[in-house]
Amino acid sequence: MRQLDLFAHVxxxxxxxxxxxxxxxxxxxxxxxxxxxxxxAATARVPIGTAKALHSPFKRAVRWHQQTLKTLGVVxxxxxxxxxxxxxxxxxxxLDRAADGVKLVAFSTMxxxxxxxxxxxxxxxxxxxxxxxxxxxxxxxxxxxxxxxPTDNQYVDFICGxxxxxxANLVTGGSIVLNISNDIFQHRSPARSLYxxxxxxxxxxxxxxxxxxxxxxxxxxxxxxxxxWACVDRVHLATAYEPLLWLTNDxxxxxxxNRRVLQAxxxxxxxxxxxxxxxxxxxxxxxxxxxRPQSFGNPTSGRLSRNVVERGxxxxxxxxxxxxxxxxxxxxxxxMQPTAIxxxxxxxxxxxxxxVVDPFGGTIRTGLAAERLGRRWIVTEWILQYARGAxxxxxxxxxxxxxxxxxWASQGR
Length: 413
Ligand SMILES: C[S@@+](CC[C@H](N)C(=O)[O-])C[C@H]1O[C@@H](n2cnc3c(N)ncnc32)[C@H](O)[C@@H]1O
Hints:
The chain has 13 helices and 16 strands. By secondary structure, the chain is of the alpha/beta class. The protein folds into 3 domains: about 1-85, no CATH class; about 90-260 and about 310-410, Rossmann fold (3-Layer(aba) Sandwich); about 265-305, no CATH class. The strands form 4 sheets. It has a 10-stranded mixed beta sheet. Strands 1-2 form a two-stranded antiparallel ribbon. A hairpin with a 5-residue loop joins strand 3 (about 90) and strand 4 (about 95-100). Helix 1 (about 5-15) crosses helix 4 (about 55-70), helix 6 runs parallel beside helix 7 and helix 11 packs across helix 12 (about 365-370). S-adenosylmethionine (SAM) binds near residues 362 and 363.
């Protein structure tokens, strides 16, 4: 059955209906006619499911789309565009943003779902215990990106508003990890904005979160910048990191375990172990650290991770996403993280089966990391085209399903 085509016909049938609405019987007729499906194909019944009961695949598909539209709760027509449902708010020629109240499961797997919606519309109604939120919100940029950015002054309210419903469902000792920018400057000044300090204080004072760490994501593949202050006026060093703020609602019971993110031992350490540990005696830091014969001789499963994440932008998933977006004719997301970032925090701060969320999904990397690590996940993204491109990264996942409405993303207007 032409599932992909039918959604648009069902939506159009409702949009064209009189104010009295449309009966399901009339809906079948209208959709069959507009989709060019003849009567016998529309009414043909085949055995479906384990009970092998006879059903019409056409009618089932129409009802499914009808139900989706009802669930979306979007019955409003766009005043000046006959035949269009108010599902999206065009942002640019190529980007569709979910209108207020629209919630559509863009795609899902056995473990999680990416929802095309404003995050507030999803997380406010969610009553599921959340173990971790890893997110990279829009930065407070003076020159906004295509998907929209709050200003420096709006930022604290913006982030607290997005996180509040998530924090309300955070399990005891659950964590929030925020990838924000250190490179926000005061107007026409090389002085950095203090928005990050204000944000940390507000997250503590308003949402009761405790700061566990500020972990620098050191990335030497960042382009040289800040352009004005490092490359033109030469008063700043070129930036190479972004802060990852790690917060929790209960530091005493935080669900972190550094044994889940052990690194491989260095070659030097391996040789030391083989030699049975140190062979010398020494004392450092006025006696605070002592080395004795056999120190570091006990085999351990790995090296403790340092609180610095060193990672370039290059990532196989980013390349795969870009290729898919180009093939589908979609605009590419311009602020992606390598999957290694959410992967690290998901391993460190959760266990298999836990729920991981991201209210600012982009290419759904938090979902991708969770999926690969056997965690459940819910991610929201309000730009249809980004969700559509990201779906291609999940095609091999167990139970992958993509909503037919996502075809709109690559149709252009
Ligand atoms: C910095 S990007 C996230 C990038 C992502 N971590 C990745 O690696 O692809 C922020 C994303 O948040 C989305 N966004 C902004 N406000 C939103 C909202 N209220 N609800 C849902 N998504 C939103 C933007 O469209 C954008 O794709």
